[in-house]
Amino acid sequence: METKLQTNQNIEMKSKKEDSVRTLLNIIGFLIFGGLALTMITNPPHSTKEMKEFLFFIMGSTFIYYILVNVYFLGELWRKVVYTTLFIIGGMSIIIIFYLLTSSIPH
């Protein structure tokens, strides 16, 4: 009698619900950042410098948002990476709040 060994294959199944949440988050992102871009038409900036800064903000925010949303759905390890990144961004925001409260800005 001979035993046959089979290797264990880890297969991750994606559910339709997970795909629909991913699609929903991508659509929400399109609406948010599309709306931000439309504010340049409805409320135009005063100078080209302000317009460039606003466009860089929109592009950077869009890039970070879509990277985090799509990396989140790659697997359990990547979810931890997304949570860590969000924690770091939130912590930096709180640090910047206290920095701006304590330092005076000449007007």
**H and E order:** HHH
Largest sheet: none
Number of helices: 3
Oligomer: single chain
Low-confidence stretches: none
Radius of gyration: 22 Å
Q: Quickly give the structural class.
A: mainly alpha
The counted number of beta strands is 0
Helix percent reads over 70%
Q: Can you give the mean pLDDT?
A: 87
What is the terminal separation in angstroms? 88 Å
The percentage of residues in β strands lies in under 5%
Inertia-based shape: elongated
List the main descriptive attributes of the protein structure presented here.
107 residues; mainly alpha; 3 helices; 74% helix; 0% strand
Detailed description of the structure:
The chain is an all-alpha fold and 107 residues long. 74% of the residues lie in helices and 0% in strands. Helix 1 runs antiparallel to helix 2 and helix 2 packs antiparallel against helix 3. The chain is elongated. The mean pLDDT is 87.
Write a compact overview of the structure shown.
74% of the residues lie in helices and 0% in strands. It has 107 residues and is mainly alpha-helical.
Topology at a glance:
Blueprint: H1 16-42, H2 48-72, H3 76-102
Helix pairs in contact: 1-2, 2-3
